[in-house]
Amino acid sequence: MSETEERSGGGTLAHRVPDLGALELLLAVARLGSLGAAAREVGITQPAASSRIRSMERQLGVALVDRSPRGSRLTDAGALVTDWARRVVEAAEAFDAGTQALRDRRDSRLRVAASMTIAEYLLPGWLLALRAQRPDTAVSLLAGNSAAVAERLLADEADLGFVEGLTVPHGLDSAVIAHDRLIVVVAPAHPWARRRRPLAAAELAATPLILRERGSGTRQVLDVALGGLARPLIELSSTTAVKASAVSGAGPAVLSELAVGEELSMRRLVSIPLEGIALRRDLRAVWPTGHRPTGPARDLLTLTRT
């Protein structure tokens, strides 16, 4: 990165954001009030900890820790950075729990199948909580649309599933674990972003949309709401792909509000008010009829309701 980029805050995110080890050290200093105690907790020497804190201060351009014979105290800027660091570390832990579950492990004792929205936006947090409760439980995750989840369960390829459609697939029992709402979103440059009146069902049905594929819970809800008249501009097999296409300006999309919170807050997408269209749905845990979840599957089901 050039000197000009350094001064202007340019370069990649990796150059501007401290690594997880440094953030964990900062959290330990905040919690323990001592650089030496924090160093022992994370398993490094005190000189190495001091060097890491100084390196982080240079990288961020702010003083984070006041050091004195009585201990180490966060500066005002350090306290603010620590709050942000805590969120990054928690997100990394959830990311790790989710990616571990994706690995095909032969010793898996809990096989989970989840529809894409739930797998992307809810399941990592649940798996992180399950790991804290059952650290020795190996979990494998199979992600697909709601129809694929049902197929996995009925073929005995999963112990517990999560779906997001309007109906429970045949052969499965279920429990409602959460509620969700679909919303219509567009890029800020789209004409709908400047409209002053809500969007009616007829206009939505007449407009080609970026949609999930048939068999997904998201598509099922929209098709029912529009009487089967939804017109696909593009059909994509993941929520992330639909969202990326909408952000690029390809056209309007229909997505779970769980999936677009960040994009809406940063104005990369705009939510369009609807009139006379019900796009609410239940999120459900499902399992084969007559086989109530037991063991780790039961524990995961319980965690989804807390």
From TrEMBL:
It comes from the Bacteria. It holds the Pfam family LysR_substrate. Gene3D superfamilies: Periplasmic binding protein-like II, Winged helix-like DNA-binding domain superfamily/Winged helix DNA-binding domain. Keywords: DNA-binding, Transcription, Transcription regulation. Transmembrane segments: none annotated. InterPro entries: LysR_HTH_N (IPR000847), LysR_subst-bd (IPR005119), WH-like_DNA-bd_sf (IPR036388), WH_DNA-bd_sf (IPR036390). Residues 18-75 form the HTH lysR-type domain. Belongs to the LysR transcriptional regulatory family. PANTHER family: HTH-TYPE TRANSCRIPTIONAL REGULATOR, HTH-TYPE TRANSCRIPTIONAL REGULATOR CYSL. This is LysR family transcriptional regulator.
